[in-house]
Amino acid sequence: MLPYTACPQSTPILLPPGTVEGRLPNGLHYLILHNASPASRVEFRLIMRVGSVQETEQEKGCAHFLEHITFGGTRHFPKRSLVEYLESLGMKYGQDINAFTGFDRTIYMFAVPTDFAKDEALDRSLLILHDWLDGVTIDPEKVENEKGIILEELRGFDPEDDFYSLKIGQGIFSHRMPLGTTDDIRKVTPQVLKNYYHKWYVPSLATLVIVGDISPLEIESKIKERFKSLPGRPVNDFRNYPLEYTRGIHLASIRDSLQPRTKAELMIPHPCTVERTMEDAIAKEKGRLLVSAISSRFRARKLKTDVTDQWYLSDKNHFVLTVAGENRKENREKNRNMNASGSGDNGKYCGKTLRKPDNADEKDGTDGKDDTDDTEQCGQYGRYERYELVRTGANRQPNGLADGAEKAEKAEKAEKG
Asked: What is the per-residue pLDDT across 348-362, written as a single tens digit (0 to 9) for each?
């Protein structure tokens, strides 16, 4: 018999073997890992834990705008010489050299080959990262020229989700889009960009990640030497924002004549779990088991229903139940079957609210008309009120679905026998 060793649930989950992690006195965090495949190649990342949600009303659009400016000139790489240097090593801008800005992060990335002049490539790469933290040149002419590029990017932006505005909630995320708006971009000035840059680009909000065909201890020594001179500045008003939803039920629908079927989705936002400890990992696995149990029950009843639970943004997962049919009548029947499967009478189909009001029309919950033959294509997302979330276990554990896992398992056993 193999010996069993109990693992305290609060035990931190370890980083991959061989990872070198550290933090400089100024607050700069770094992670370094040797990876021999592909040979003679190193990947660099500068992860800034700031994005568009840290912007003030006057700075809207600045986080993404600044990302563009960083490639246009720094203290040691004037104008486009930074990109030109990396491209001289065989790297391609937009593929091996890139960056992106989100609501709560800005990440810069590039790769360099190390099969020729390795020390020089590593040293200059670290110098690029250093300049991005403390040496970006914000030139007025460059700022004006970049506005046209960003406005063109904005014109081509498509979230690829017809219900994005519903999913994003009603908090700060709903009015801090990383790209900003046309008016936001046109109002950006060099001084506003400088204010944002000097306030948020500080070592305590930065993490360096370096992975590749290198010696981690050698790279750690270079980091300490290169970045020790950066001043550690406090950031007193930094905060992590939650994804917020007002209490109640939120519905939306669209009509698409090109789609032959009707689709309905029920979405329940709930707190997510970040796997930092064994306790976190166990809670997350319970959530996966619950989703699997729900899916198995629907399959057993021959209901073609998709059930997922994925991280969406910030501190929230979205538990999503999807049904599709030829029309509303078929979706209505599927929802009734799901209710009969034990999901209660709080379900929703296309055009219905999650919980019927006492005065709801029996034919249709929206306009009082019988939509039995309506072939409207719609996707709807709703949110239970808090007491309904609690009743379904969605707010009772750090993982919003973990609390229902044991109940689902007991119900499954009872059904079998």
From this structure: 323 323 333 333 333
